[in-house]
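Can anyone check this?
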Amino acid sequence: MRILVPLNSMEHVDDYIASGAGEFYIGFYDEQWTNKFGDFADINRMSGFKENANPFSLEEVIEIIKCIREKGQLVYVTFNSSIYSEEQLDEIKKYMVILKENNVDGVIVSCIELVEIANKLEIPIVVSTIAGVYNMQIASFYRDKGAKRIIIPRDMSVDEIEMIVNEVQEVEYEVFMMRNGCMFSDANCLGMHRTESCSICGSLINASSQIKIKDDDFQKRHRVELNDIIYTKAFHEYACGLCSIYRFIKMNIAACKIVGRTDEWKNVCNDIRYVKQNIEIAQSCKSQEEYLKRMQLPEESRTMCKLGLSCYYPEMRF
């Protein structure tokens, strides 16, 4: 199981690799795209954060692809916005032609239209979590359309993932592992990731609470307000899936993903090391129980693991 990480700085690519990264995903910005389609037209899911999330131009990404491949690692480019117009799809096809000519390892795409474009260009296809592959039928659909890899949504259980993996074969699977969870389903979210508070989750977290309670009394208000504090401030504040690694290795999951295109590089490296260490531990274990006893827990585990709210896969412990 390879470790996939976001790349937002070439300055630290060797640090990522030394920590254990085997694959990278990257987005880019294009001023001509913005001039043509407007500020709210996204190339990828993080376009709204502009250069903070996608600090490179397409020309720079081409050079990065060459560099990463020379280092023996894989690199994928993201086109995973929630929606594209026909005109925008035509523009993305032009991008993909350029990426194909420069030997990109694959593109991460969010919709069937982009799958079909990439397939015709013979570019390896990774189906994004935005596509919502929640069952065997959807997984089969994308596999049959030419997908090389499917990213499983972050809100599925390990047992649900295993069911899909066992039934729909001849395609790779990727799972979420560390950092930046979400209280909602990516595939069913109608918000946008932007600083203008267009994301539903960000708006809820940052808004002041206005709680109306029928038959209000102290005990009921205490429970309701405590629940609000816990779930808006603590749920997936920092997400972790380390307890699931043994099971994922047994399933032959191809890659586990560390998210955080806007995160500090040292924190990402720290997560890479945790994942790498636990993969090595899991490979020498004979059972899930043995792995849970021997695994390396995060530094903040005493806080993170208390309620299970930071867990991608809480059923592995709780």
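Reply from J.R.: I decoded it. Residues 2-191+236-316 form a domain with the TIM Barrel fold (CATH 3.20.20.70).
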